[in-house]
Design goal:
The complex is a heterodimer of chains A (about 170) and B (about 190).
Chain A (H helix, E strand, L loop, with lengths): L1 H32 L5 H8 L18 H15 L4 H12 L14 H33 L6 H22 L1
Helix pairs in contact in A: 2-3
Chain B lengths: L12 H26 L13 E3 L11 E3 L7 E7 L4 H17 L5 E7 L4 H10 L5 E4 L4 H6 L6 E5 L5 E6 L5 H12 L1
Parallel strand pairs in B: 3-4, 4-5
Antiparallel strand pairs in B: 1-2, 3-6, 6-7
The chains are: A mainly alpha (about 170), B alpha/beta (about 190).
């Protein structure tokens, strides 16, 4: 009787373990199917796009209804397996290139990339020239006083020599 | 006595010319862009260039999935810009549909809805919600709205039988009669 009871208990434990195993498997598969992209994943793309309605507002922080719809669209596109580039291209096709935070390197857009560094370089060049001019005329015009360094002392010597020569002639 | 030799170390003339030409060109470019932005919408009397509007499925015109403005030569075109996220658009949706139903049998007037920066599921839900049946499609790449230089939605443009704009309505219509009065002045 006891032996039979023990056998039943063993079957019970076995069935319970099997049920747990199956439950774990199903739970695991259900978890794997939940591939809804998170807000962070959506925002990685959204912050590279700008709302065309409310100007100068990145899509990831834009509070309007239109932007909320677009973020949901990005989420569904990510869930469908679209890549970041494909999603950005979709937005350009539908809403124009102005939605891109970084304008495409074509046509007049090149000005955005070339102009600021060119202006900075040009400014640096003129600043350099100006500094050089501010210092050089002082050295040349001051003549006797205030020179420093080898070049200025040579000029001074030359000047003193000419002055002495001139004085000698007058004597 | 002290001989100063002022050395002129100015920027070479050709560099100066290049810089000035560049600066003037840049200013002109900025001026043109700002001028275009300040221009406002197209004005009555302006001839409207041809454009293509892809249509949502279920909203095709004579079986065609896209239409051109030139397809409607000789007809009066009511071009309405809207969006599903636009609350004022909802105020005029029913009026536009009612006006369309009034003119549809005559065949002299065409209503075209241009869905501005919208997502298709929401746009379809909007069309369904307000029972809109006239031809509708998305403004792909915002090309049409840029052509008309719209400032927002809703905006409605009335194009006469010769393809010239004759009336612009900024904001929602207040009644069906308002729409009818604008259309009728060109039908009579």
């Amino acid at each position: 009787m006891n032996k039979r009871k023990l056998q039943i208990t063993n079957y019970g434990v076995l069935a319970f373990a099997l049920a747990l195993l199956l439950a774990g498997l199903f739970a695991g598969s259900a978890f794997a199917q939940d591939n809804t992209p998170t807000d962070d994943e959506v925002n990685v793309i959204a912050k590279q796009l700008y709302c065309p309605v409310c100007e100068n507002t990145p899509l990831d922080v834009c509070p309007t209804e239109a932007c909320r719809q677009w973020r949901e669209l990005i989420r569904s596109q990510l869930a469908e397996g679209m890549t970041e580039d494909q999603i950005k291209q979709y937005f350009v096709d539908n809403y124009g290139a102005r939605v891109l935070a970084e304008p495409p390197r074509t046509g007049l857009n090149w000005l955005v990339y070339l102009l600021p560094p060119a202006i900075i370089l040009l400014g640096a060049f003129f600043l350099f020239r100006s500094f050089r001019e501010w210092t050089k005329p002082k050295v040349e015009a001051t003549g006797v006083g205030g020179e420093r360094g080898e070049t200025s002392s040579l000029k001074k010597d030359d000047y003193v020599a000419r002055l002495e020569e001139e004085l000698k002639k007058r004597k | 006595m002290i001989e100063t030799t002022p050395q002129k170390r100015g920027v070479p003339l050709w560099v100066q010319i290049v810089i000035w030409v560049f600066l003037v060109g840049l200013l002109a470019l900025v001026g043109v862009i700002l001028g275009k932005r300040q221009q406002g919408t197209v004005q009555p009397g302006d001839a409207i260039p041809d454009f293509t509007l892809p249509l949502f499925s279920g909203y095709e015109y004579e079986g065609k999935s896209e239409v051109k403005l030139s397809d409607f030569e000789g007809k009066l075109v009511v071009l309405n810009f809207w969006a599903s996220w636009c609350k004022p658009c909802e105020q005029e949706a029913a009026e536009l549909e009612e006006a369309w139903k009034f003119y549809e049998p005559g065949g002299e007037v065409i209503f075209l809805g241009v869905d501005y920066v919208d997502t298709e599921p929401e746009a379809r839900a909007y069309l369904k919600k307000f029972g809109i049946t006239f031809f509708n499609g998305p403004d792909m790449g915002t090309k049409i709205s840029q052509l008309f230089r719209i400032r927002g939605v809703p905006e409605t443009y009335f194009i006469d039988q010769n393809g010239a704009l004759y009336y612009v309505k900024i904001g929602p219509f207040l009644s069906v009669d308002e729409i009818k009065s604008i259309i009728d002045q060109k039908l009579q």
